[in-house]
Design a protein that fits this description.
alpha/beta; elongated; single chain
Length: 319
């Protein structure tokens, strides 16, 4: 086998674009598979996903099947390509075994966690929510289970203390391209390891819900800040006051927030101070600073302006 492989990429969102570009540069990209075009944006116009758009720019063959289960025509189209291997990068669908067995070396998935930690749909977000200081890309052999296949290659990276989900997504997308490139180089030489996952060490990263964005002021300030970082892209952090949802667009940990005294012994969720542009709020341990908020149906504003308009002062509950 030569170092240049015949490959297909299965991916949809922007996370898969750097992987696609690397495959195009280093191998023979025989096919790009994405989810079908769908309505998106404020006008809900039907438009291609990020990977589909980039594939079109590169002039690569594009396939967008609505399903793979009981779709013999789609499977035969894949089989006719005589693939060495297929790569998945945030494709968003579980593929049946009839598809997984088509390429000579099966499917390799670029998963954005250090497996077996954080199996599932939202590993980047949950790594931040849970306060991890390290993550990475695991290239695994895809099986029918959810992120359960043997580990083939791992690239690690530290998480910055103020890194948000959008920041980390962008960085991990580039790291995924590096990891896939290294894995395929080893695969071509017959030197790619195959290490079973330890299921006893597995944790899960389920798809986020709107409720995951609710601020839990009873948690330590560090945990409130980590959740804000993790849900920033979606669903966003929020709390309710007088039946009105208030989105928190910018939030910071208070100086010295690890000390119990940082909250002044106040009840979690109560105002410690309304400053010129920010609002300090007590947490279960320490305090956070609300910097910018968006009340339902209104424009984004400085948190202090919102608090003064809501007649909030020291000792008042924000939620």
């Amino acid at each position: 086998m030569t170092d240049r492989l015949r490959v297909a990429l299965f991916g949809s969102p922007a996370f898969g674009v750097p992987v696609l570009e690397r495959l195009h540069d280093e191998h023979e990209a025989a096919l790009v598979v994405t989810r079908p075009d769908a309505p998106a944006g404020r006008g809900m116009r039907v438009r291609p996903c990020a990977v589909a758009a980039r594939a079109a720019e590169l002039g690569l063959p594009l396939f967008q099947p609505r399903r793979w289960v009981r779709n013999d025509e789609a499977v035969e189209r894949l089989r006719a390509l005589d693939l060495d291997v297929a790569i998945t990068a945030a494709y968003g669908r579980i593929l049946p075994e009839a598809v997984l067995g088509v390429p000579r070396h099966g499917f390799l998935n670029a998963h954005a966690s250090l497996l077996p930690k954080l199996r599932g749909a939202a590993p980047v977000q949950w790594a931040l929510i849970q306060g991890f200081d390290e993550t990475g890309i695991t290239v695994m052999q895809t099986e029918a289970g959810l992120d359960t296949g043997p580990i083939r290659h791992v690239v690690r990276t530290q998480i910055g203390p103020h890194e948000t989900a959008p920041d980390l997504f962008t960085r991990l997308a580039d790291l995924a391209a590096d990891a896939v490139s290294e894995a395929l180089r080893a695969l071509a030489k017959g030197a790619l390891p195959l290490v079973p996952q330890d299921d006893a060490e597995a944790t899960h990263a389920p798809r986020l819900t709107k409720e995951d964005g609710r601020i839990r002021f009873a948690d330590p300030a560090a945990a409130v800040y980590d959740r804000w970082r993790g849900v920033l892209a979606w669903p966003g952090s929020w709390f309710e006051r007088a039946g009105e949802r208030v989105r928190v667009d910018e939030l910071a940990r208070d100086a010295g927030d690890t000390a119990p005294a940082a909250g002044g012994g106040a009840e979690p969720g109560t105002v410690l101070e309304v400053g010129e542009a920010e609002v300090r709020v007590a947490c279960g341990r320490g305090a956070v600073r609300l910097l910018r908020v968006t009340p339902a149906g209104r424009r984004t504003m400085a948190a202090a302006d919102w608090a003064r308009g809501a007649h909030l002062g020291e000792g008042d509950p924000v939620a």
